[in-house]
Amino acid sequence: MIQAGLWLEVAWMSVRLACALLLTLSAHAHAQEPEAEQTRVGYTIEPAAVSAYVWRGDRLSGEGFDPAVQPFGELNVSRLGAGNLTTGVWSSRRLGREHGQEIDPYVSFAVDVGPVQLKPGYTVYFMPALEPFDTMHEFSLQSIAVWSFPVRPYVTAAVDPIRTRGFYACAGAVHTLSLAPVQVVTTFNVGTSQYSGLAYALQDVTLSTRGQLAFGASGYYAALVAAGAWSGRASLVYPYTGMSLGYSR
């Protein structure tokens, strides 16, 4: 546990140093580049709570109402070379007796290639209570349509050759409805997976809707989420809800 705590501290310090470096580089680029090509830096901070922790069709919290807090912070650097860089840390902590702490730093880089956007990424899943505490190292690639239609199909593949030694692949579509100051995003996702010790199977069929209300131009917003996930391996449906308050610039 001491070693796990040390590695988590090192990981968090690395994220902070990377963010500081990106801010410095983007400030320099902002001073040097023409207006049309300036690098832009944005960030989002969002404390959130959910009625249950459901991930890719698997219920990771207990039965019934078992709430968890799931805050995240994210830094976005747009017009950085050929694309947009995103890095952040997402976390989850149950409110019951068994806290089930999880901390997930991630990074991705999105590039528009013709009619699609390609986004390679890397996420590491830290669970301090487990051994090994870095339970998954996931290298992913997403392809999503770039057009003006409100429905955008996507395909994603994620591979972990280090811990779980398997893959997760999914396809789906995102529908966005914007009626200022409200935005409603609905996502339909079908995923399949195969990991060491687990046979190939349908992982999940998930439908989620997120409604977000912006408070003018202040950057503050409130959001509500309603979702349901069918677990392929458990053959059960797990409904859950969530709410959050955030700030984005």
Describe this structure in words.
The protein is mostly beta strands and 249 residues long. The protein has a single domain, classed as monomeric porin ompg (Porin). Helix content is 12%, strand content 61%. It is built from 1 helix and 16 strands. The strands form 2 sheets. Strands 1, 2, 5, 6, 7, 8, 9, 10, 11, 12, 13, 14, 15 and 16 form a 14-stranded antiparallel β-sheet that branches. It has a two-stranded antiparallel sheet with strand order 3-4. It is globular, with a radius of gyration of 19 Å. The N terminus is likely disordered.
Summarize this structure briefly.
This protein has one helix at about 1-30; strands at about 40-45, 50, 55, 60, 70, 70-80, 85-95, 100-115, 115-125, 135-145, 150-160, 165-180, 180-195, 200-215, 220-230, 235-249. By secondary structure, it is mostly beta strands.
Descriptive labels:
single chain, 249 residues, mainly beta, Porin, two-stranded antiparallel sheet, 1 helix, disordered N terminus
Ordered list of secondary-structure elements with their pairings:
Layout: H1 2-32, E1 40-46, E2 48-50, E3 54-55, E4 58-59, E5 68-69, E6 72-80, E7 83-94, E8 102-113, E9 116-126, E10 134-145, E11 151-160, E12 166-179, E13 182-195, E14 198-214, E15 220-231, E16 236-248
Antiparallel strand pairs: 1-6, 1-16, 2-5, 2-16, 3-4, 5-7, 6-7, 7-8, 8-9, 9-10, 10-11, 11-12, 12-13, 13-14, 14-15, 15-16
